[in-house]
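Lab notebook, page 48
Experiment: co-folding of the full assembly
Goal: obtain a model of how the components sit together before planning crosslinking
Operator: M.T.
Materials (sequences as entered):
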Amino acid sequence: MTELGKRIRMNRILDPVTKTTIIIPMDHAVEGYFEQLEDPRKLIQSLVDAGVNGFLMRRGLAKFSSLQFAGRVGFIYRITSATSLRNKVTDQSFVTTVEEAIRLGADAVAATVFVGSEDEKEDLRMFGLIADECDKWGIPLLGEMMPIGTKDAVPFDGPYSYEDVRIAVRVGCEEGADMIKTYYTGDPESFKKIVRYSTVPVTIAGGPKIRNVIDILKMVKEVMNSGAVGICMGRKIWTYENPPALVRALLKIMVDKASVEEARIELST
Amino acid sequence: MTELGKRIRMNRILDPVTKTTIIIPMDHAVEGYFEQLEDPRKLIQSLVDAGVNGFLMRRGLAKFSSLQFAGRVGFIYRITSATSLRNKVTDQSFVTTVEEAIRLGADAVAATVFVGSEDEKEDLRMFGLIADECDKWGIPLLGEMMPIGTKDAVPFDGPYSYEDVRIAVRVGCEEGADMIKTYYTGDPESFKKIVRYSTVPVTIAGGPKIRNVIDILKMVKEVMNSGAVGICMGRKIWTYENPPALVRALLKIMVDKASVEEARIELST
Amino acid sequence: MTELGKRIRMNRILDPVTKTTIIIPMDHAVEGYFEQLEDPRKLIQSLVDAGVNGFLMRRGLAKFSSLQFAGRVGFIYRITSATSLRNKVTDQSFVTTVEEAIRLGADAVAATVFVGSEDEKEDLRMFGLIADECDKWGIPLLGEMMPIGTKDAVPFDGPYSYEDVRIAVRVGCEEGADMIKTYYTGDPESFKKIVRYSTVPVTIAGGPKIRNVIDILKMVKEVMNSGAVGICMGRKIWTYENPPALVRALLKIMVDKASVEEARIELST
Amino acid sequence: MTELGKRIRMNRILDPVTKTTIIIPMDHAVEGYFEQLEDPRKLIQSLVDAGVNGFLMRRGLAKFSSLQFAGRVGFIYRITSATSLRNKVTDQSFVTTVEEAIRLGADAVAATVFVGSEDEKEDLRMFGLIADECDKWGIPLLGEMMPIGTKDAVPFDGPYSYEDVRIAVRVGCEEGADMIKTYYTGDPESFKKIVRYSTVPVTIAGGPKIRNVIDILKMVKEVMNSGAVGICMGRKIWTYENPPALVRALLKIMVDKASVEEARIELST
Amino acid sequence: MTELGKRIRMNRILDPVTKTTIIIPMDHAVEGYFEQLEDPRKLIQSLVDAGVNGFLMRRGLAKFSSLQFAGRVGFIYRITSATSLRNKVTDQSFVTTVEEAIRLGADAVAATVFVGSEDEKEDLRMFGLIADECDKWGIPLLGEMMPIGTKDAVPFDGPYSYEDVRIAVRVGCEEGADMIKTYYTGDPESFKKIVRYSTVPVTIAGGPKIRNVIDILKMVKEVMNSGAVGICMGRKIWTYENPPALVRALLKIMVDKASVEEARIELST
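Observation: model returned without errors.
Model output:
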């Protein structure tokens, strides 16, 4: 991450001083109904005020809510899509281009690849060509790298073998990602190995299984101890009863290196 | 290999004086976990110092380790990919472009084609279009030409019929490769026939079967006697206990035309 | 064939005075091992000296043997490919572009289409797009038009119905070929009908069945009497014991309109 | 001159066996009335039959007379122009492109540069950009390099200082010409120095002053002895009473290395 | 100089270990007759062997002498030109493109700008557009930045005011140069100020005035002490009686930080 364009844009989604990031995905509306996404402008405003580093959005919501976030925090433009009506999440379609990302003022693009899927040949090609364009235009590529696992139909139902996640993450690095988003393996020891095998910064997705907010704090504490730079976590945050408070608690852990006990105080502020 | 751009770049990966080359592939991280690839910067530096001619890398590791090799040895940019999670090595995806290779400062691009596979129609087309671009921009194309063999699922488990390898190699020549990488057939007589049927310089891959370092030296001695220009050999070299020593021993054989006995002295230096 | 670029280039592969052509395909090395193609430079030189009009080659051999033919006879660049390892000759891949043909200095491009195959939709589109480019750049397109026949797996095992060949040839004409190569039907009466139905000059391929050199002369005599302009015949010529003598005998028939008896004298010169 | 496209095309205008060339410019009709250019088709046919290597023409005459020369001899496409109505020959306009040359089937393009003129800055740029395109497409560039001399208005009224011609010629070489056309200096000693300072083959223009056909033969004899590869001479040849005879006499000198006395015999055949 | 393409190429013309460079310009043949440039292939070979880092050439000489330098040392492609026949050195024409530099395999491009000239508006625009292309393709730009001075007609007749040189150098930096070539001011104190004001590495041109080889060594010693990274010096080196010896003496000073007394010993080797 050294040339000027990539550095400027990367610094907008990954704090260059604290080396941490909280990115809030709000790209889920193609995957189902979420009341929080109906008109999320107040939510977005509150998350900006709470100190998030950026949002991961499709162009629709980004245009709709631009007054709330534009120029204040980073904007990561999602360029792959798969709907709940099709209901085959591994069939990610590359629905837009890096040139559109530039026109939209995005600071980065994000693509999901299910490594090991039957369509891998096509998917890797699309991912690589997007990476070419990102290098050409100086815009970072966030690779959401997921192992297809042995359970093809239900990829979100891990835990995954950490070896599979490790390969998937490195595939992203090798084929052009500037930052990685992947699933937390559930234990810091194995995740450390994944972070070490990555040649670029790693963030974690929210993942499917945790229901208790304290467990989220614990998970993020572990993840940061593993060497990751942060989180790219949407539903876990904006379905919580007080999203800005959760963000503040997470920042305590991530930026101030607070303990979970110290951080949870923020939840009641 | 006569026009200026191709000549300059080719001379950076194939020594124009000795007519030999040692290229070190380090593109395996998409195919599994290798501790040597976790942070190979010291390894790369030691191989540069030992006298290798170039590295075959994907863009991720190339960016990560640029301080160690940039401008000192050749950089061959791999443009095809297939992961161990998919585990179908013949499904090589063309993941990037010659224009990206230029932006990255590569001296050559490398593409793998499994000749005879079900996807041959598509794969040959992709290979040929890359060759067009290489001719347009004056950058050499290293064709990794492998016969699909009769055992589709396990193409790395030869030995192959030398007749199949011979055709596969010539397919690379005819459709635009400027240098060939293929498997050694295991005996110098048959490999001589392959080299003779090639219209461009031939190098060998490490291949799967040899475990003893002396056998590697013997193999390379045979290969050079067959008329090949060198080796494109990664794991056999960097999983050895002392990679620079092995490179120096190989250079003894390749450049100084030493015997295996003479060369093995380098292993203990 | 009136615009300047097409006329100039066509005249280099089809003699404008005698209205005949002998084109020597040497594009077979992807289809098997031929000792004559191992290093055909002397062979090529001898064929140039004997008076052939051009060679049909892929880029590999063309680059390898350029000193022997460059600028002395025509160069027809083959842009489709199918290997013997895949062993499905009807799966022709369009492996290169008209722009590459220009860079290589080719006088024409040649594409094979198996008319009626399962991939016809894709193949005709590729053929037509190449024809578009040929019209744009003023470079002739040699269409190798073959009816798929009823025996899909063994297309070279004619005789074909001449009605099928006639349609296949006209498909080439209609979709953009400037010259046709097809199989001889085996009798001059039916072939006359094919030539009459073609709107562009017709040449014949060597075909698989004749083993006697006199039979080759007889076939070519018949073919010329049918109104064809010549032959595009490789293996029959360069596997003969004295290729230049055979070319001279064929020129006797084609240019001097000699009888087979008169022409065969050349074979012993 | 080694890559395939340039080699093929160059060999069509410079005989690769004899290393000589007779190119006949017929591009003068923008500079005045010449009765020989009114309908030069018979003249062109007779020159083709006499053995010239190529014609230097604008596109108008090339289209008009294509039946006479197309595909039989080389076609060098003139891409600069200056009319006699403007009457400032140094104001050469770049009137067409290399892409048009390809469409027209040209084997080379020719551009005139008056080195040292007031417009040098613009002219060198145009020349260099044409050279870029020639390298891109594999088509040779014939540079007509003329020193502007001290007498700006009458540049054809030499003799020139050979030092000036030498620089002008080398400017052509350095900025991308593949072959040079320039004025003969009038003595073989100085011209040898010019040829030696050129990095590409040199031909001479007819020049303005000789009126006797024997003097033409003498001049060409001297020029060939100086190391030049041939002549690019129009009016001197086609205003002579028997142009094909003059071409045959010149070929005697150039190809057979005949003396002027031996060659003049051809004039009366 | 951090992105991969620029780093790789820059390291080929500026040694990344010693942080020094000796670049030999041989682009003068458009400016006059130099016997050393008539056929400089042996000279080039001897300079390669002596350890220079690269040559600054136009495409003509680069093609002519490619066997001597290709792939062994850096190749900086000159993209501006002005001839001695025009004799207005400040009228530099941008004669070629970055895309051509890529086709030719160049490691960098070099453009001369006379800052403050009447054509500054056009020249800066051309320089900037070239810099744009260099950033796009990852190829360094060597800016030869010269103040126009007060004596327009004789710009090589300094000494210049160091303040003018300082501005000119910084203009190069600001408008896109990755390395600077300028004239030495003649004293290390003023040159230090110039180097300090430059944001990229600085090299010096040979300049017109020194005639004694010891004075060259002294000048280079001073220049290195001023913080410059090296020299871009042609005539001073290749018109010396023993060019490789001079290069070795200069390397003593530049790489080994030898004194002039120590270095001059190399002159007699």
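Interpretation: The longest strand of chain A covers residues 108-115.
Next step: discuss with group before ordering constructs.
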